[in-house]
Amino acid sequence: MLNKYILYLTLFLLSTFAHGQQHIYRIDWKGDSIGYLIAEQSKSGSLVTFDLKSRTKFSFLMSFDMYNEYYSVYRDGKLLSASSENTVNNKRKSHSSVKFLEEMYHIQVDDKDRIEEMIISESISTLYFRPPVKAKIFSERYGQFCSIQRSDSQTFVLIKPDDRKNHYFYENGICTRVEVDLPLATIELNKIN
């Protein structure tokens, strides 16, 4: 009986790995590597899961240790649930959750709740695996849609709620580089695998 469970577990794990992708990005600031981002996509039947995890450490007047995670689940191209958490120096700075219930999204960002009726088919997490199709993309972190525009054939510009712009660069449909405009600096994510 135990051998049967081990066989099923092994087959499940092999099927999970066979249907997954992982992209690793080095995070650079002023020519120095300050961290990493791991973007994972896995498929199981009609479910597609995206998981982004990043860690950065740098000093700019003081030391910062930042950890961010985005997690999204889609079924047949429609977002079912999502969450994000952002910490700085081991203290939570923001968090969000999104759940599709009763034909609408229930969104909580920090302590604010809202409802969204527009179907979500693309989000920040999906950008690391394919270029956007629509002119608006959902941000798991901000809990709202952001405009995204094609800059040239391989580049897209995301306009965040604070009007800062992130640039996503693609080669053969895969995101190879991201320029992220932050309040104190611009960092660059470079795909290394």
Summary keywords:
193 residues; mainly beta; 14-stranded antiparallel beta sheet; 63% strand; disordered N terminus
Please explain how this structure is put together.
The chain is built from one helix and 14 strands. It is mainly beta. The protein has one domain. The longest helix has 17 residues, at 2-18. A hairpin with a 2-residue loop joins strand 2 and strand 3. A 14-stranded antiparallel beta sheet has the order 8-7-6-5-4-3-2-1-14-13-12-11-10-9. The model is unreliable at 1-18 (pLDDT under 50). The chain has one helix spanning 2-18, and strands at residues 20-29, 32-44, 47-59, 63-75, 78-88, 91-101, 104-109, 112-116, 136-139, 144-152, 155-159, 165-171, 174-181, 186-191.
Question: What are the secondary-structure elements, in order, as H or E?
Answer: HEEEEEEEEEEEEEE
What's the rounded overall pLDDT mean? 90
Label the structural class: mainly beta
Based on CA inertia axes, which overall geometry fits?
globular
How much strand?
Answer: over 45%
Helix content estimate: under 10%
Count of DSSP-assigned helices: 1
What is the straight-line distance between the termini?
A: 40 Å
Structural domains: how many: 1
Sheet with the most strands? 14 strands, antiparallel
List segments where confidence is low: pLDDT < 50 over at least 5 consecutive residues: 1-18
